[in-house]
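Researcher: Quick sanity check before group meeting.
Model: Go ahead. Protein one:
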Amino acid sequence: MKSAFVRRFTKLTALVLALLTVILACASCAGGEDGKTTEKHVDYAASVKLDMSSNTLKQEVTVHAYIDGDTTHFNVPTSVLPGGILKARYLAINTPESTGKIEPWGKTAAQFTKEKLKNATSIIIESDDDKWNADSTGGRYLVWVWYKTADSDTYRNLNIEILQLGLAIASNSANNRYGETCMAAIAQATREELHAHSSEKDPLFPYGEAKEVTLKELRVNVTDYDNSKVAFEGVITMNSSETVYIEDYDEETGLYYGISVYYGYNLNGDGLQIMSVGNRVRIVGTVTYYETGGYYQVSGIQYSPMRPTDPNNIKLVSTGHSASYKEIDGETYKSDITVEIEDAAPKTVKYAALALDTSVEMKGLLVTDCYTTTKEDSSSKGAITLTCTTPDGKTVQVRTIVLYNENNELVTEDYFMGKTIDVKGIITFFADDYQIKLFSINDVVVH
């Protein structure tokens, strides 16, 4: 028979071993050596199921335009929405910005959403209740987005998938039909320190001192950036007199936005090569108001080949692009247009003001008057301003640089006066009015 001491010692040993087992088990759940949780990862996007028998509205769709991480335009039957395009705002999520003021993880989220939808064999949007509900702007509809791929028979919830990857923050995430799952996905992404919930740097964001914006944001709100250092991307469409014109297409509005960049004599060698027509570039510079011309431009750019990764450098993104030369008529050119802006009230501005510094084409212009610059001390001596009437009865100003024909002879007013012409040029601003500026004799066709 064991002594009382032995029995007590045996019980104490068993108690210690049990306690150690609990501690080790808790440690394995609570975290590893780096202090991070090692709880089992849950695929919340697959844990919810698309119930085709529920009272919510559902519609199979195709993508009309990819906008950003939480906004997509879908093609729908006109019975769902007149016009056949539903501008979808994803329920329960808010991804970082990539269409206005660009934020870390914004482009990453946008690319993720685009990749998932582009590779989908079927996409279904679902309302949160028994009707399609508009968001606060009135122009977009709040939906759940489901997709499936060729290697799966079931649909995944893209909203929740974006949340569980940490590519979005909460946006009324608890107050919906999948609220409990949304909140669990957010908690898991936060616990696992994924993307926007981490201290990790976004590899697609440059983290320079400049404000990262799109050309749409810069053009629509240019006065907000007066004397500010900005960074943006676009395609160079024209290079003339130490100035380039840059434009970029916006999927959401279906419009091109642009700005002129004065580089002066700051660049040489590789820097000048970057500023070649047809290049897509990243520009970093300061927004300034050019008093003489009466418009905003970007200046103060730099390129240091000794510091190729410097976020303050201009940068070549890609080559082989072309100017859009968007064809417009007189009515469009002279009209006002309303632009929807992310998380802000829509703005109504003149089309020409919105399309300033972009490339356009106009056809069938009748030249009714001409004026030639004759000042001896002007670099524009010989340049011509043409007053034209469009086929729909609008008056348009066309301004040429000093042009020469194939025989290197100066082109004069007689070449245009009374003729019908087609032109390709850049919308610019001069003498309190908008004009289409021609940079080459090859950009005009005389009928």
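Researcher: Fine. The other one?
Model: Protein two, sequence then structure:
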Amino acid sequence: MEENYAIELSRHEHKPLQVNPIKHSQPMGAALAFMGIRNALPLMHASQGCASYTKVFYTRHFNEPIAIYNTSVSDITAVLDGGDYSILMAIENITKKNKNMKPELIGLHTTGLTETKGDDVRGVGMHIEIPYCFVNTPDFEGGMESGWALTVKALIEQHTEPTSQIKPSKLLLLPHVSMQPIEIEKIKELCTGFGFETYALPDLSTSLDGYLSEGQGKLGTGAISIEDIRALGDAVAVVTIGRSMENAAKALLEKNSEITHIHFDHLMGLEANDNFVAALMQIRQIDPPPLVKRWRGRLQDAMLDAHFLIGSSHFVVTGEPDMCVGICELLQSAGGTIDAVVATTYSKVLERIEAGAVFVGDLEDAKSYFTKTDLVISNFHAERLLHMDEKSHAGLMLRGFPNYEELGNQLKNDQLYEGSTYFLFEAANKLREIKHHG
């Protein structure tokens, strides 16, 4: 597999530009992460256009007001005024304009312009009275997944207090960027059912979740506060969901080496969730709640029911690496064949995927596989390509960013036994529609 991957990667690495890209920038991932912190003010150190694009992107995807601000840097002011001045003036102007706004954290993330200039985003924190977190997220490196992961790592490094104490019932989840608010909520509920005091970082389960609240859109409304982040060092275990989150967990272990790190590349399908539940059982020394066993049985039944359609079908999957590996392994557990996986950025987890082709690319690269596949699992932009291709009769199942076609993205659950069941039935029903109704 590693040799095949190297061949596929080299085939696309010298492409001079992306056509119909599936990749999104690191600052976008960082902005979303700060939205998952209670009363955080996500501040993009960038031009107004950069922040406006991100705001519109998330507004259309989640259909919710989006809390994001910018330092209004231009190529001229970047040179003449300096980074410190732009950041401090932005914070002063934002808080003056919104006198009732009381941010508990300023989350500053950089962009290509300010990174190229080399602004001292660390030093500016000395002049800010509000708790401050900075993260370097240039557009010219990584992608949305890495921007989210870097932000989580920065929050832990800069704010979690070192300790040698452990609370036996305290658990921290570090979810990857492609997980929806409802999915984080469901995983927290499962852990709470085992008697854990459960935290997630970031925690979008109360943010962008379709719930109208007072002051929505002005500050982040995540379920974890800066005080909670400071006190994360005494968790008995940290659970990383997604290969991109491992470095953030390592940062937490630097704060307290007694913490147990439990890693899962994803929580989709029977095997991954059996291992997850077994890990929770081992820590708490108790049996799982009855509903967990019932959903496990439902997933087994769904695998049998969906096997007749999925087992005879071919798939193309595009998106963030941590999302792709979960989708692929769940489909393969029901007999599906993965023709190609097109990822936004490189990650070692891609080498785990067994597929006809696995590579970093764009939708133009993916299009060549559309004619021979049955179902494409991709973002909203794949829809136009499928409609334009007269040779393709493949269906589209929307996953990842952005999804401008469907409502309720934030409440779509693909995780755990329950979400995996829903996913398999959705895929099977899409295939039935394609094969039996044209």
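Researcher: One line on it for the slide.
Model: The radius of gyration is 22 Å.
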